[in-house]
Design goal:
The complex is a heterodimer of chains A (95) and B (200). With 95 residues, chain A is an all-alpha fold. Chain A has four helices and no strands. By secondary structure, chain B is mainly alpha-helical. Chain B is built from eleven helices and no strands. Classes of the chains: A mainly alpha (95), B mainly alpha (200).
Chain lengths: 95, 200
């Protein structure tokens, strides 16, 4: 299952090798592939009667996860913010 | 926001075609999506490797704020771990969903590939909700939890979709931090989602 990560590394190396080239269309390709995959995910969910029947429950569970995930990360950022020096201009950038 | 609506409409179209059985089931059996996923991962990697100049900018960030992506990831894990005890799904599955950090397209695709459509759907919705929560509540987060809070909440989206609202609420001087945070967490998504999916 880690094979997809190999594809990403191959992409990083290729991207680095072609760094001097202006390649504008790469974000368009990414977006198109994402649209295609989300469409396929929709199909896969749609043919799965169990998931379709439970859609409202899944949505509720997803909302709980989102709230707790966001809250946890905010608390982490809050602690980091408290120990970071607050003098203007200094709290996030070096001189 | 507009981007999420377009993505949701692709998902919804697929959903309707699936429910009505208008889409040939043989396409799914062929595992077509794996090849598209591999192509997606390659292009995502390409876009990372293609911007070494952006990475050079990050050296300007204060050393302590460099830890922000780490606190975001660990905080997210702690949060979903707590809520996972009330679910029929395993903690590792919840950690995989949380590790999407708002990058709903990639994380839901990966989770569907490894764990099936049900968990993939939860991952899609949970990570879309995370983005929406950030877009709506960023000002409140900045007021009560400090100016780094909206960036942490935005997760992997802070260099694209939630970037404008973060700059508006935390200030322009946070733009490099926001891009840095989005860049690092973006990169972490495929790793941690895959890692947690590989565990029970």
């Amino acid at each position: 299952m880690f094979i997809v990560l190999l594809f990403m590394f191959a992409g990083i190396i290729t991207g680095y090798l072609f760094r001097k080239w202006k390649i504008q269309f790469i974000n368009g390709i990414i977006l198109t592939l994402i649209w295609l995959l989300l469409f396929l995910l929709g199909v896969e969910v749609g043919v799965n009667d169990n998931v379709v029947k439970n859609f409202a429950n899944l949505g509720f569970e997803a909302m709980l996860i989102a709230v707790f995930a966001t809250l946890g990360s905010i608390i982490g950022a809050w602690l980091l913010w408290k120990i970071t020096p607050k003098t203007p201009k200094e709290h996030f950038l070096k001189h | 926001m507009k981007g999420s609506l377009i993505i949701l409409s692709f998902f919804a179209t697929g959903l309707l075609l699936g429910i009505s059985r208008l889409f040939p089931a043989s396409w799914i059996a062929f595992d077509f999506s794996f090849y598209v996923l591999a192509a997606l991962m390659f292009t995502v990697g390409f876009s990372i490797g293609h911007q070494p100049d952006t990475i050079k900018q990050f050296s300007k960030i204060h050393s302590r704020v460099l830890f922000l992506p780490l606190t975001t990831i660990l905080g997210t894990w702690l949060g979903v771990m707590v809520i996972s005890f009330f679910s029929k799904h395993s903690t590792a599955e919840y950690l995989a969903i949380g590790s999407g950090l708002g990058y709903y397209s990639l994380s839901s695709i990966l989770i569907t590939e490894y764990k099936g459509a049900e968990l993939g759907t939860i991952a899609l919705l949970a990570n879309i909700f995370r983005e929406i929560i950030t877009l709506v509540l960023a000002p409140l987060m900045a007021r009560y939890f400090g100016k780094l809070a909206p960036i942490a909440a935005g997760g992997a989206t802070t260099m694209d979709t939630t970037f404008p609202i973060i700059i508006k609420t935390s200030g322009k001087e946070f733009s490099i931090v926001s891009v840095y945070h989005g860049f690092v967490t973006d990169f972490s998504v495929p790793f941690f989602v895959t890692l947690w999916c590989s565990l029970k």
